[in-house]
Structure formats: structure tokens, C-alpha cells
Amino acid sequence: MAPSIPLDVTDPRTETVGVIGAGMAGLITAYTLLQDGFASVEVLTRDKSIGGVWAKERVYPGLQINNATANSVHGEYRYSALPMPPPDNRGGRLTGDDMQKYLETFADKFLEGKIRFEAEVVNIRRDDIGKWLISISDKKTGAQEVVTYSRIVLCTGVRIGTDLILHLAQYVFSRDAATQKSQICCLHVQLKPHTSPAPYFIPRSSDREWMTLWLQLDPNKTKEAKQGRLHRWRWKISTRVSSRRTCPENTISHDIAFPPSIAAYLANEGRNVTVVFETTDAFLASTKPLPDFIRKSRLLSVLSPHIHLRTRLERFLHTTWLGSKLVYYFWNALVESSFQALGVPKDSPLRRIHSPFWSVRVNDEGAPRPNSFHSLVNDGKISLAAPARMESYGADGRSIILSDGRVLRAAAVILATGYVSSWGGIFDAKTREEVGMQRHPPSNARTYHWDYTTLANPPHAHPDTQQWANAIYRGLVPAKNIARRDFALNGSVFTTNNGYVCEVIAHWIASYFRGDAMRLPPTVEDACADAERSAAWIRQRNPTCYCRTLTVLLCHSAPLTFPFFRWPQAVDDLLEEMGLQIMRSGGSWLTWPFKVIEVREISTLKEERDAKRAVLKF
Fold first, then answer.
1. What pLDDT was estimated at residue 92?
2. Dist. CA 541–CA 170, nearest whole Å
């Protein structure tokens, strides 16, 4: 790879940068660019508050982060520039309120006056002289405006909304059901204005990227229910917590995709809850918190093969017969110990999980809690209908029909049947083609395959898995646009340590925008070939996830990479491209897999990049 790609002699820090999105990725990107000396950085968000998925209007009571490993640990889901305050008495579990307050504090301290709220991005395009034109709609006034930036970073995520199966919504429960059931709940995703005539699928004229749960807090207030005065909570749909498992009995689902805490919340409120699913997420759990050398080290990443195997230990584990046996033994033992920790019976449908080795659908449930999803199932407060899928509504208007023939009565239905990209509506076909964000069939010019013994017997993958690829280099830059250094992505890398990864990516983007010497592909063709190879790796490494998540997202040209447990290796790749130290947690040949990774390791990345830049000038 070439050390750098030539840039115009103009200092890019004197030009404008637009950061779209004020979530975890957007905030650290803006902060890092400002620290690097970019004088004009503006953050655009359609929300009233910062936080993205953790914005005030989206955090609901009882929300706890259950993403595997570091993200769910209080004090670890953060940036190096700002410690997280000590937790309340929750056993160290990180809550939605914790994240919202932390991100708000970060923005107040470092980004005051840099964030533009309630500015909805309607369209992004490039003009004839290479500037980015962003059409904005003011959500308060409805005023339209076009702003211009020299460079932009898209930090909106790639899994904002959900996609409903419309034929299932053609017939819904009658209005009379509202007065006959003790509770009402409804979930609706706005695909087109007013496409659903039913009282339980509530049309919304805007805000189509969010699902809204409507709960009648007092079952006797049917008059208020009819008038639409219902209490509302919002939450972000995330592939990390997606499953077919959490569906209240007053809420039946076809391929449900939202956190189990929602089902637990409904059950804890006294509602009758039934969950319909075929296969659910794997989870990590233990009677006591796992030690840091397991939860926060490289151990899980070493046992999860990367696109290249950097160390002798990784090569032994993933390319030898004995090594593969040890890897499988570890993951199987981890699954079984998690089942035992939460008291999941041998014959429980909750054991119908996706493999944590092959899948990225893994949650961290921590220690048992009496009000958690699994405990409520064990206590009979949440019923299970599995394995099954919802096929249709019953003719009586008060029931649903499952794939196994069972008929379940319900007052309302929650459907979440997939994902749509946050980018589909803001890039027209011309811009997607010009920038290189469109999907395409895999190239036949070269076949990629990794002869890892641990990947010898993959789960069945849908045929669509092999039909599409993306051309996004490292999940950060469209390969076709890589030489221009004026467009990048942050927040599109699917990992279990978002704080650490997003911060490293922000530094990578800052170096990329500044024109620093980096180990990037020397040509656009080489960048496209690298992206093609990475897409082939994802198809082999995570075949079911690639099919279920990436191919759906790619229908709107939304690329994604899945380091997940192997995020330390992915971060090392980015650090290496910047010419910085890798494997920063240290350790000897014997101890390095168990050394705790801490975000403070990357607190000096700016100074290291400055020093490297100074040396190269002489």
C-alpha cells in the first residue's frame, strides 16, 4: 500500500466540515476534528437533544444496555476525554439515562455552540465544484435551507428504522378490542403517510426513523385511549439487540426486533405477555460479574477469528485441528454457563439461540435479576410461543395465526420485520453512484476464501448472502471516493465497544481529512478490491448476519462491517494505517490476551499523530 494519497496544498482545516448526527459517533468526530484544528465544524441533528439513540426522547424507564462485553459495563462506554461518573447502586450496569447524561455533559463541555438541533437532513449532493450541498428542513418552523460544506462525516448510523410487512397490516384488530382488553400497546413504523387505517397502527406524518410504543397506563381510561391521549416511549431499533423473542401477548410479532427489556417492562407493569419467535439471540450471563481479564481483554477477540491472523496464538487457534477444538469448547462452555446462570431449563425455547461464535446477535444479561426478561419467563410472567412465526391475522379481528397453526388472542400487535437504512432517503441515485455507496453483485474476477479450521462448518446461509457486496473501505470511506478525502462515515462499524472504536475512527478520519501520510490503497481500484475482499470475509465469517442484516441494509446502499468481538483487531488495523502503536494494552507473550483494554490507552492519539507528522516534515 502507498504511504499516502496526494492532496491539494490548501490546508483542509480552514474549510468547513459538516457532521451529520449527534450520537456517540457524531460527538466524538466533531470533538476530534476541533482538537485537530479544524476551525469550522458544525453538527446537524434532527433531534431536540443530543445523544442519537440515547437522546432524551428515546430513553425509556428501565432501559439497560445489554450489548456484549465492555459496552454494558458502567464507565467503559465512554470517551477518553471525559470519565463517566460513578454509578448508582445498580451493580455496575449501564442504563439509558446514564448514557444520555454522559453524552449531554460531553457536548456541553466540548461542543457548545457547535450543534444545530432540529435540523433534519433531507438531501445530500455534490455540486459542480466539489462542495457538499445539504438540504435541511427546520423541524420547528418547516423552513427549508441549503448549507454548504467542503467535507462531511455521516454519523447517523445505518439501522435507523424498520420495515413492516405491509400485507400483514392490511387487516388489524377491531376498535372494540380496546374496550375488552385490560391493556393497550401499539407499535408503528411510518413507511408512507397514513398507510394504516387501524387504531393500533398509528400513522405519523413524520419522524419515520423511530418506532413509538403507545401504552395506556390506566386500563380504565378507555375514553382517553379513544382520544389518543396515550403515554409514549421511544427507543432505537438496533441490530445488536434484534431478535424474534420479545412480544407481549397483547402484542404479537412477526420477526420482532427490539430489546427484551420492552417485554420485561410490559410484564413488570402487570400486562399479559406472550413472545413469538423462532430463534433468539445468544447471551452472556454469570451469577457474578465476569472478571475484567475476560470481559474487557482481548480474550474473546482472540477466540473470534479476524480477516488476518496477526499472532502465533491466533494462527494456532484458528488454523489447527487442536486449536479449533479449544475454540469451540470455550464458546460452548460459555453458552452453557450462561444458561445455567439465568436458570434456563434444558427444554426451554430460550435455548434456541444464534451461535455466539458465528453471529453478532449476542447480548450481555449480566447477573440474574428478578425483573429481567429471563427471570420473568422462568416465573411464568412471560409466555413463549416458539418455535413459531406470525403468519396472519385471524378473521375474528382479535387473534393472530402462527406458522404452527396455533391461534392467539391479543389486543394489539407489535411488528418489527427488518431494517431500513438511515441513508436511503438523503442520497439520490446519482449521488450514490457518484460517491460509490450503491450495492453491487460480488465480483467474479477473484474468489476469496479463508482456510480456517474454525470456519470449516458454517451455519446455513440464505442464498441472498452471496448476491450483494459493498465498496466501502474499512466501513469508513466509499472506495470510489477515497482519493478525494472529503467524505467519511463513523458509526457504521458494528462492535461491542463503541466508545473506543468510534474514537479511533474519529482520529482516522481527522488524519484522512488533513491529508496525512497513511497506509491507504494507492488507487481507487485497489481500494475497491480491498472492500470486495472485506465483503467476502463477512460473508464467510458471519454468513447468517450478513444475510439478515447487511443485505437488507444494502437495499438502501447502507454498508456495514461486523468486527463485534474482534474489534481490537479491527482497531489495530486502523492504528496501523495511521502509523501508530497497535496492541496498546501491552503484556508479555503469555499475558497479552488477558490484559485489560482501557479507553485511556487512546487518550494521546492526537499527540502521537502530531509527532509523526512533524517527523515526516523533515
1. 60
2. 38
CA distance 236 to 108: 23
Torsion of CA 493, 498, 500, 502, to 10 degrees: 50
Q: What span, in angstroms and rounded, lies between the C-alpha atoms of 214 and 441?
A: 41
Q: What's the mean per-residue pLDDT of the chain?
A: 78
- Residues 603, 607, 611, CA angle at the centre, nearest 5°? 150
Question: Which residue carries 416465573 as its cell?
Answer: 379
The beta strand positions in 389-473, using DSSP E, are 390-393, 399-402, 407-409, 419-420, 472-473
Using DSSP bridges, classify how beta strands 211-215 and 231-235 pair: parallel, antiparallel or unpaired: antiparallel
CA angle 50, 476, 8 (to 5 degrees): 105
Phi, psi of 504 (to 5 degrees): -65, -40
- Cα separation, 192 vs 190, in Å, equals 6
What distance in Å separates the CA atoms of residue 276 and residue 287, rounded to the nearest whole number? 27
d(CA 246, CA 66): 14
CB atoms within 10 A of CB 111: 19
The whole-angstrom separation of Cα 199 and Cα 227 is 11
Q: How confident is the model at residue 327 (pLDDT cuts 50, 70, 90)?
A: very high
The long-range contacts involving 261-266, CB below 8 angstroms and separated by at least 24 positions, are 261/62, 261/63, 261/64, 261/66, 261/373, 262/213, 262/235, 263/373, 263/376, 263/382, 264/62, 264/371, 264/372, 264/373, 264/376, 264/382, 265/60, 265/61, 265/62, 266/183, 266/185, 266/215
Task: Report the candidate in 510, 476, 420 with the shortest Cα–Cα distance to residue 154.
Answer: 476
Q: Between vectors from CA 216 to CA 214 and to CA 217, what angle results, nearest 5°?
A: 120
CA dihedral 74, 79, 81, 84 (to 10 degrees): -20
137 and 122 Cβ atoms separated by less than 8 Å: yes
Omega cis (within 30) before 387: yes
**Which pLDDT does position 91 carry in this prediction?**
57
Backbone angles phi, psi at 327, to 5 degrees: -65, -50
List the domain boundaries for the chain.
Answer: 12-160+421-440+470-523+556-617, 161-419
- Domain 12-160+421-440+470-523+556-617: which CATH number of 3.90.660.20, 3.10.180.10, 3.50.50.60, 1.10.10.10: 3.50.50.60
The predicted-structure confidence for 453-503, as pLDDT tens digits, reads as follows 999 999 987 666 566 677 899 999 999 999 999 999 999 888 889 999 999
Is residue 179 scored above 70 in pLDDT? no
Going through 158-293 in order, the beta strands assigned E by DSSP cover 161-162, 185-188, 211-215, 231-235, 273-276, 282-285
- Summarised one tens digit per residue, pLDDT across range 117-158 is 999 999 999 999 999 999 999 999 999 999 999 999 999 875
Q: Give the pLDDT band of residue 352 (cuts 50, 70, 90).
A: very high
Distance CA 365, CA 290 (A): 11
